[in-house]
Specification:
The protein is mainly beta. It is 0% helix and 50% strand. The radius of gyration is 16 Å and the shape is globular.
């Protein structure tokens, strides 16, 4: 049972389900044209301690399939030719999922993007949430924890 009173139950009938849930209110500044790992997460739940909330890297401790779901919100302080959110296989240097938001003008509103992937992970495989944009200057993530989330569930 979690602090909120929610009890997680695995499909197999086990009373514990593998789960990572983290939020980010860091307001991290993302450099233009650079695919950057989102760092500074605050974990609510990490049942197996596989997620490093400081570095933003998840390391698989049990080989299985995992669902990764992340929602990231960029601020609207500068115009950007694109805003990208990736689920990145750090171990193999490949993007597993990618959500792109086309051009937006400064002040046109915050852009929220969700990216989802099912990953067949071997022990030691590392995954992170990464972002990039094409603005002419640094672009911050919104410093609101409920708008930047990461959920990892074992399938």
């Amino acid at each position: 049972t979690q602090a909120s009173g929610v009890k997680w139950a695995a499909a197999s009938g086990s009373s514990t389900q593998y789960l990572v849930f983290a939020r980010n209110s860091s307001g991290q500044a993302i450099t233009t044209g650079t695919q950057t790992t989102v760092t500074g997460w605050t974990e609510t739940t990490d049942t197996d301690n596989d997620f490093n909330n400081t570095t933003g890297v998840w390391t698989c401790s049990t080989a299985a399939k995992y669902y990764f779901i992340s929602t990231i919100t960029f601020g609207d302080t500068v115009a950007a030719s694109d805003r990208n959110v990736f689920i990145r296989d750090v171990t193999n240097s490949v993007d597993l999922a990618h959500n792109i938001r086309p051009f937006s003008t400064a002040g046109s509103g915050q852009t929220t993007q969700t990216v989802v992937a099912c990953v067949d992970a071997a022990i030691g495989r590392q995954i992170s949430i990464q972002v990039s944009h094409g603005a002419g200057s640094n672009q911050p993530l919104v410093a609101v924890a409920t708008r930047n989330t990461l959920t990892i569930i074992k399938a």
